[in-house]
Amino acid sequence: MRPRIFITQPVAESAVARLRAVADVEMNPDTLHIATKDELLERIPQLDILFCLLHDKVNRDVIAAGKRLRAIASMKITPSDIDVAAATARRIPVTVIAPIVTEATADIHFALLLAVARRVVEGDRLVRAGIFPGAQSAHLLGAWVHGTTIGLIGGGGRIGRAVAKRAQGFSMRTIYWTPRRKPESEERAAGLEYVPYDRLLAESDFVSVHAPLNAETRHLVGERELRLMKPTAFLVNTARGPIVDEKALVRALKEKRIAGAGLDVYENEPKVEPDLLTMQNVVLTPHLGSAVKDLRESMANVVADNILAVLDGRQPPNCWNPEVYGATK
Q1: I need a surface site. Which of 20, 217, 248, 282 has the fewest CB within 10 A?
Q2: What stretches in the chain show pLDDT beneath 50?
Q3: Domain boundaries 102-284, CATH class
Q4: What is the four-CA torsion angle of 73, 76, 82, 87, rounded to 10 degrees?
Q5: Between β-strands 234-237 and 260-263, what pairing exists: parallel, antiparallel or unpaired?
Q6: Nearest to 221 by CA among 187, 182, 251
Q7: Class of CATH domain 4-100+293-325
Q8: Is the peptide bond before 270 cis (omega within 30 degrees of 0)?
Q9: 269 assigned to active site
Q10: What is the DSSP letter of 303?
Q11: How far, in Å, CA of 27 to CA of 4, rounded?
Q12: Which of 203, 223, 269, 273 does the annotation list as catalytic?
């Protein structure tokens, strides 16, 4: 009997074709539908491999129902929302992808920064509504980007450094803070200036979030931090939603304690704080960091590599819990 694979949302056909050569593959065809827990529970007893995407929640109950499950293959860099401990207890490998989304995420980060500062989305809506205020109208006055200060929270990592490179093209002063400061040689190479966290918040025209999500960084940007920002400053987050206290952000925006925000990630994805949806000075995108066709094709094929290794009886190249094979990370 051929192994059975289920893919929770459409992915690149080149990856699907590779899998269909060795297995029976079913795929949810709806790009707008995230599989529910009940849907996963219904399907997983018949599956050998679950190919899941960023928003899929594969918890203990789902894993327990997968009596013949041989692998959980995720198209994420880290297996958040997958109960790795439960999978490991069943000796089920959990696979991920390599960190190949750096440049695409830095692109969307700068797109949000520019869009919220220069009121691009508001302008687009006006033109579509048949309203053209005039090329020198004061109706949509925005903020400078060139020559301003961008502050990278957790900015010593791959994406932070990629954003810093883009900032150089706008002659921006780039400051950063992280709990573990980088060597001065790395700072010079990346054009980064290290400052304490509170100073970064107080001096930045754009506060740029790049920290990983963990217990220490949850609500790293909250009520206190937002009060330290300039009233003319913008917050941009393409890292992880829960790093920002969304309710505190709404209060800061309503009270005009900051100028605006550009968000690609949210505290309770896929749900978004309702007040954010009504604010003109907020630009929102639905977690588009890696949404580049060629990149997504590469990502899907990395997942296919992992699955094919499992089906061939080999340890997959991107195994998060190699202890199921008696190996260590």
Answers
A1: 20
A2: none
A3: alpha beta
A4: 40
A5: parallel
A6: 251
A7: alpha beta
A8: yes
A9: yes
A10: H
A11: 11
A12: 269
Q: What local confidence, expressed as pLDDT, does residue 155 receive?
A: 80
Is 219 tagged catalytic?
Answer: no
Residue 266 tokens read as 């949210």
* Phi and psi at residue 248, to the nearest 5°: -65, -35
Check residue 329 and give its pLDDT.
66
pLDDT digits (tens, 9 = 90+) for 97-113: 999 999 999 999 999 99
Asked about 240 being catalytic, the answer comes back as yes
What CA–CA distance (Å, rounded) separates 107 from 294?
A: 14
Rama region for 256: left / alpha / beta (φ>0; ψ in -120 to 50; rest): left
Q: Which of 43, 161, 287, 296 is catalytic?
A: 287
**Amino acid symbol at 119:** R
Strand order in the sheet with 71-74: 24-27, 4-7, 49-52, 71-74, 94-95
Q: How far is CA 219 from CA 88, 163, 181, in A?
A: 30, 22, 21
CATH topology match: 4-100+293-325 vs 102-284: yes
Q: Give the residue extent of every domain in the chain.
A: 4-100+293-325, 102-284
Measure the CA dihedral 50/54/56/62, to 10°.
50
DSSP result, 51-114: EE-TT--B-HHHHHH-TT--EEEESSSS-TTB-HHHHHHTT--EE---S--HHHHHHHHHHHHH
Tokens representing residue 174 in the block: 């780039």
Write down the residue that tokens 């009270």 correspond to.
255
Of 70, 240, 246, 296, the catalytic one is 240
